[in-house]
# Entry
Amino acid sequence: MDLCLMIEGQEGVTWPQWRALAAACEQHGIVTLFRSDHYMNLDGQHPERGSLDAWGTLNALAAVTSTLRLGSLVSPASFRHPSVLAKLVVTADHVSGGRVELGLGAGWHEREHEAYGFPFRPTRARVDVLEEQLQVVMGVWGNEPFSMRGEHYVLSELDAQPKPVQQPHPRLIMGGNAGPRSAALAARYADEYNTAFPSLEAVRERRAAVGEACERAVREPMPVSAMLGTVIGADAGDLADRARRVGERIGSDGDTLLREPPTGWIVATVDQAAEQFAAYRDAGLSRVMCQQLVHDDLDAVALLGDQLAPLVH
# Structure
């Protein structure tokens, strides 16, 4: 099981901080850096925490890294026309020399949509839009001229150039709780299924549901990954200090995080964390996107890459 770094870009991460995070990942052997795709702080309490555009950031990072893979987790279908999104991903694929991944979802944060003027449709309609976006993105990336007349998008004989560096296309990640429609869409279009903050039992259940959807779609089972909240310390004192910093960031306190971690969080020393990650690996995860909320803590990146990842891998 691989450990990746996941950064919430809407928490005021600056461009110098993005560069430092990417450099730390490459220095300490973390294979992939993911970032969220949001335009504003999500808790409503910190409007001063801004966000650089996800795909602008990923394209820029592609130009200043050499080995690090980069991806979105996940880009809302409601933010961009799918032809624009497909072009942004292909651009990052070329800039990086084939090191980019696309996570794509339906979008969920209503206030963010309202503030920026994006339509926020009912859940079923948002998933309808997502399904058409998946069709368009795959069509744009394909080798034949693509036409489509859907309810939301109409394209005519598009032969988009250039094609992706990665063939047949960049890795596409879909996510959710593995409900019937989500799992079916993933089985039709995706290369990986991601779920957020699951318990071990939820991993087993969702992996089984995705596997059944793949069987119905007559394809091989796809890898399943998860985003987990991650607070790791070299020892008990280091863990307590890092838990305090994370608690301050999210309006909690370190003692509570240490005593009662939320579901889907690993708050532990390196050795303890290795055991907990191993349990997730044994439940069926192929990789974990480790959510790090204190984005200027480069020592935590080093700890993840140098000490924890080799134990889990």
The two ends are 5 Å apart (CA to CA).
